Fold this protein.
Amino acid sequence: MQIGAKTLVANTDYTMTDNSIILNHSLFTVGQKVNVTIVSEGYQDVIVTDQVIGYTVTFESNGGDSVPAQIVDRSATKPIEPAKVGFKFYGWYSDQNLTTPYDFSNIVTKPIKLYAKYALAGSVVTPDTTDYALGNNMELEFGDSDWAKAISSISINGIAVDKTKYSVDTVNRTITLDKSLFSRARDYMILIKATDYADVTLVQKVVNGYNVHFVVQDNAPFEVQDKIVVRRITEPVVYGYDLTWFADEACTLPWEFTNSIYSDRKLYGKWTPHKFSVVFDHQDGGFVDSKTGDYSKTITAPTTPTRPGYAFLGWYKDTAGKTAWNFATDKVEADTRLYAKWAAGVENNGHYNKDVSITFAEATAKLDGKDYTSGTAITSEGNHTLVVTDASGNETTVKFTIDKTPPVVTGVRNNGLYNKGVIISFNEGTAKLDGNDFTSGTTVTSEGSHTLVVTDAAGNATTVIFTIDKTAPKAPTVNTVTSKTIKVTGTAEANSTIVVKAGTKIIGNGKTDQYDKFTVSIDKQKVGTSLYVTAKDEAGNESDATKVTVSK
């Protein structure tokens, strides 16, 4: 084996393995190019031409595409930039902390390792292609809000832009460049730098445009700024108002904003307040009410909602009922949802026949002029007034009554029996007689059994069952009475009272049994004496008298 004219000594200048020949480093100097001749008996000589002796430069791509190492005898060649998803290659650095950029013109004097540095990929930014006429602000659009928040500087044609001359809107994702930055019609190179992100460059074309003057009629409470446009007019938008535009002052020719213009123009507008939706959420799991309200105008309150077992306290801007909506002063500025606030346990103007407990939130209260704590039981009968006050001082008054006493009925008694019409009165509530509505002070005349139920507003009820019986019993049937008779017997209406008279004098009385039979004890009477026997029922109706003459 030879290097040039030098014959190498085995195991000193070189060693061999099964598949390689290793040359001793002492044979070479850095930057040297040598030809190595390998002689093998029985084989043609092999010559390795221009073997370069240099240093290894390795590349750490830090998560990007791998980059092959280089052996160099002077300076390293800048490799193809490695790609890394979501990042943009920033450059090669000589230290692992990525603080010192590497200069590829440097002479390599020892093995080195270079480290790839990346920046987050900058956002896609598009130039203004709508109103890019000279004299307008330029509005760039971007896609990455996080990138926009990191913007550190903007330059136009290499000149740094003062931060007062641009604004970044991360919500609408726009960058607005002040019109003063563009002095004439031309292409402008814009460079945007953002911390930890790769630089973004784009070209903004600026051309001469046409002036459009907007005239809003009918004493509009706003103005529409004139525009300089390229070909088409962007329809003006004024928050809270609906606009219609016309090409003529008489407003007979509607303007189509898809039209192109080729000269200065004046447009005339009519306006109306935009109608926003106002939703009234009862917060009871049921339906909601809604209405519309004109922009910047107050609205009227809807019909007060009701809810079984609750008292309405007002409409609020939040579900917790902290901030009340003032129908006298609050104005509709957008689609709005208002929420009903309730006190649980009582209804306004409600009547109760038992203790009540009232609960509410985000408020203080006074009951009959005294401090009241939410959830406290109210036991005393009578009329009560609860005044609930929220954090803003809005007061809601709830009136209710506790009445545990049933109505009082006069003119008839329970289980009473009457032989004539009765006038029935009661001190409160409503009534039904035999299932039909009944008015206090009405006379009941119909015979038969009756049921009167009187119910007051609190639910207390008084029930009276009575009977009207105007029909007199039939005259009794009397058995023969002799001068020796001491017991008068016969039949008459069951449970009636039997009276026996001699002339006008009562000489005996008794009652019929359930079988219509009666026995009345009397003293013996003289022959020929006329006896008169009558029956009186439980209602007091008296029968005709049965005349009996005492026989021998």
Remarks:
- The first strand starts at residue 2 and ends at 3.
- The mean pLDDT is 94.
- The radius of gyration is 56 Å.
- Residues 55-120 form a domain with the Immunoglobulin-like fold (CATH 2.60.40.4270).
